[in-house]
Amino acid sequence: MIEFIKKYNLPLLARFILGAVFIYASLDKIADPVSFSNDIDNYHISPIAINNLVALILPWVELIIGLSLITGVFLDGASILTILLLAFFIFIITQAYMRGISLHCGCFKTGADPSLGDLRQEMLWRIFEDILFLGLAIIVYFRDSFEDIK
Amino acid sequence: MMDKTIKQIIFILLLSTLLGMVRFYFLKDGDFTIIKIARILETTEVQVSDSGEAIFTIPSFMTEPMTASLEFTKYFFDNKKAVLVDAREAEEFELGHIAGAINIPFDYYDEYMDTIDALKYDDIFIIYCSGGECSLSLDLADVFFGEKAFENVFVFEGGLPAWEDAGYPTE
Would you say the pTM of this structure is higher than 0.90? Predict the structure, then answer.
């Protein structure tokens, strides 16, 4: 596994994949914070009062993280934030799923995307996707450790 | 090393907050405030007849959707004067819904435009979803009232759970 990671320079590949994903995920939300705030409401996990503020700031965090991952500037801080964000996303989608709430996650696009089938399937898919991304983010954070292993 | 990482995280968060505020400044939406205010819909009034029966009337002019109580919804259900609209997904609707309700899932309402356009704008619409934590009915009510200019739009906030708890007809 370590050989595989080193041979294909997986940390660098992971940085580009995550960077692209986070930049893409941020654009629609930056353009339409109103719809994104409504998506956040549907999770029923945060006080309504803060949801507009989260809808304004979170997409920019995603954009800056994405740019940092690709350029390598502030890489340690960006990779820690990526891990924390993905763990948080997995938690909030999972809790909503388990409480029987059907929602559009607002992960990439604000509003529902009919091409994704029903909402509960989409939620499961997003959880799976975020777990994969979390694995990549952990590889990015521990990138130097892989180099040290002979 | 850790100090450097923490400083980077703080910098990213501060920069994001600053950019978020700049975005807010340029956002052309008067209803969007930094501190979000929960929407509270006005509730319909009840009158009591001489025989002691509750009589529900529709306001002559509504400025936004109003809430409908369980009693209000049952009153119009019994009198067959209202169109009950289930705003949940089709799969959930198939599993059970208020008897006679039609299904227009809010998340895909664009696909149901033919159904919506076939409705009469001056009918009474009572929209519901899964109660308590569900906002689909309110969202669809905004479409009915704001986008389609339907005149009498109500949100039954108790939704299907309140209806079932009362033992009222479902199918």
Answer: no
Alpha carbons B139 and B11: distance in angstroms, whole number = 37
Select from B155, B165, B162 the least CA-distant residue to B66.
Answer: B155
Collapsing DSSP to helix, strand or coil, B56 comes out as: strand
A108: DSSP letter: S
pLDDT digits (tens, 9 = 90+) for B72-117: 899 889 888 899 999 988 888 998 999 999 999 988 888 898 899 8
Residue B34 lies in a domain: no
Using a CB-CB distance cutoff of 8 angstroms, which residues of chain A are in contact with residue B16? 57-58, 60-61, 63-64
Of A53, A74, A114, the CB nearest to B111: A114
Please name the amino acid found at residue A58.
L
Contact in structure between B103 and B133 (CB atoms under 8 Å): no
Domain coordinates of chain A in residue numbers?
Answer: 2-148
Best residue in A74, A95, A110 to probe B by mutation, most B CBs within 10 Å?
A74
- Taking CA–CA distances from B10, the nearest residue in chain A reads A77
- Minimal Cβ distance to B9: which of A50, A81, A111: A81
CATH code, domain with B92: 3.40.250.10
- The residue written with tokens 């945060």 in the block is A46
- Would residue B68 be called left, alpha or beta, if left means φ above 0 and alpha means ψ between -120 and 50 degrees? beta
> Distance (Å, rounded) from C-alpha B133 to C-alpha A42?
8
Q: What ipTM does the predicted assembly reach? A: 0.89
Instruction: Indicate the number of domains in chain B.
Output: 1
Range of the domain at B130: 46-165
pLDDT in tens, B57-80: 777 777 788 888 898 899 889 888
The tokens describing B135, both together, are 């906002």
Asked whether residue B38 is assigned to any structural domain, the reply reads no
